[in-house]
Write the structure tokens for this entry.
Amino acid sequence: MDIKETGKKLKPFAPVLSVALVTACVAGSLSGYEAPVYAATQEETPAKKEETKEKKEEKKTVAKGTFDLEDGVYKGTGTGYAGDITASVLIKDKQIVSIDILSSSDDAAFFTRAKVVIDKIIEGQTLDVDTVSGATFSSRGIISAVKNALTGEKDTSKTGQAQSGQTGAAAGSSTSVAQVEDAAAYKDGTYYGSGTGFGGPLKVMVEISGGKIASIQIVENSDGSDYISKAASLIDSIITTQSTNVDTVSGATYSSVGIIQAVRDALGQAAVNGTSDSTQNNNSNSNNNSSSDDDSSTVTGTVPYKEGIYYGTAEGYSGDVSVAVVIQEKTIKAILITESSDDEAFFNRAMDVVKKVIRTQKTDDVDTVSGATYSSKGLLNAIKNALKQAEKVTNGESIDEKPDLTDLKELIERAEKLEEDKYTETSWAVLQTRIADAQEALEETKQTIVDKAVEKLKTAIAQLESKDGKDEENTKYVSGTYEVTVPCTPDEDEDFEEYELTMSVEIRNDKIVSITDITGDGASSNDDYIKRAANGTSSIKGVVSQIRDKGMPEDIDTVSRATCSSNAILEGCKKVLEAAERPTDMEAE
């Protein structure tokens, strides 16, 4: 088959068939039975039925688009940051089942980050996906490689390296730094500076004591751990020589230069013959990413913890908020915000609690901010969690929190015991991909990544299709993917207008195994609530994972501050089950 010729037949793929990576299983056959896509309807007034029918007809038309290619593995090449990226794409029943990277010249740390686009392509069954921030060229190269495999279209673009005019590292970084004249003396205090490392922005904290550089700590960077560890060795040289005119570290040049730039930025604020105090304040509080007391030299604390930088996370309004708390001389010197998904306007207002903590040197009796209650409460709790970490370190306790791998290991063991010859080729291929992902997740240090691997492997096992079709015998519900639309109505608060929520629900072996493409046709402000209801937060489980775990929308807890959206998702699942129920023999007659 001429791949270029078949590539021209590529059609837009409809979201109605997009079922979280394993849509291929839906389109697979069970002894000649093709799992259908249904529309589950609800009771409506006569005046609304015509309008709903027209909408459904439109959606059915869009749903006809698929990758019009024969089953098989297609190979393609795209241009990454440092060179070519080659990928193989498995097509089965006109679906992208898996994407494997065969070769790449890009740096491993950035390339691993870029591979997120693979899941996006498979889950959305589309090449129209966003590149990954911080790994733009690598992720663009992966997309181009898949496109080349499926359409034959060649990627003629230059490497990111060539476009940025560098031999490596992110745009804006450098391999050299000029000599400078050191200041005669520095003002005591803690200062923060920024530079550009291998992967992007790099920030340091510099402590000046007795007019000299006492310590330097890297508080934020986008570089790989190997590079930053090597480059950090020059910090001792800066402190020993009391100068930033030091040699870069071989094998970590970009990271070295970034550290030197950042230290110089901080020292520029501390220099007696340098910039004014206002520069320090502007730098410390730019973009509300950090906060320190306006006159840190006059603040004295009684915080009974070891000096250092401590990290804490808590739930804000839309998601988690994370902070870094700097403790020196029994004083909270600064609090930096390292992560937040809350709305910027509310979050900026919530930053008042950070200033209060630094001013009072305590977290008790600090009120939340009116109009930004959840964001400010999240910030305050994150600071408290960071201080708990500081307490553990002071008491000689370990703060290394390892993820719980119990569920993941048990699931991998269960999956590896399954017999290939019992299942369809497509569903088995998806399972193998998810097993490989799960095995990689065993090396992860974050619980969220481990939990995600568990969810995906659970779904792949649930979506396995039997070759002989016996799974369909004596089932109460007809397996398939159903699209459903239900109203999301406000509660007594009436703080939003009613809108329609649409989603795709997959049933297999009398269980709901997948809920995807959850969207609302109302105001965009509803999107955060829908996302919260579906996915939950670090401390609250979303309704989607609860339903998948139980297989049914029964005894499910709604998500706080997204109750209406949670109830709409549950109602949609119930409507699907009604539509999927097999008729009894009597009804059939």
